[in-house]
Specification:
The chain has 175 residues and is of the alpha/beta class. It is built from four helices and eight strands; from the N terminus they run βαββαβαβαβββ. The chain is 24% helix and 24% strand. β4, α3 and β5 form a beta-alpha-beta unit. The radius of gyration is 16 Å and the shape is globular.
Length: 175
Amino acid sequence: MHVGSDLRLEIQPWAFNVLVAPEDIALGLLRSRLGHGQFLSLYVCGNYSRLLSSINLRNVEFDVRRAFTASQLLSIAEDAHHTFVFIEHDPTLYSESDGMIEYVSLALRELSRESTVVLYASGLDDTLRAISIKADRIFCLERSAARPDRPQRREARGRMRYSQISGSQRTLEEV
């Protein structure tokens, strides 16, 4: 999937994918997946959504569910029957139930046996790190700040680097 002029992001099908990236990259992913209309898709957000109002796809049908607690997210994951499931991470869902993090992680991993699952966040936090332990792939893409001795580029050129996120998992970052 092309998410920029020279950046290609390969979301693994039937896998639990975690994407930490700027909003425009997540919107590019959503538009490419939802725009084809070939997937039965589910969009899940928490108490608020940064992306939902910006998708701007006409004549595209996808289900939208909102979870206000970790238990509700767990129920949504257990009941999902969609080909493509996009979950917008909301760390406030776990504020009263840290013990649910592992259950949600396992439920997303289980869901990925029959669906392509993408858990999206614009930034990495401790809750997302804990959930990501069960992920098949983790993508961390960020725009690097311009160096003072070099002029700022208008957009990233697609160079990537790996960094450690937890345990043996590595992430791919745009530099």
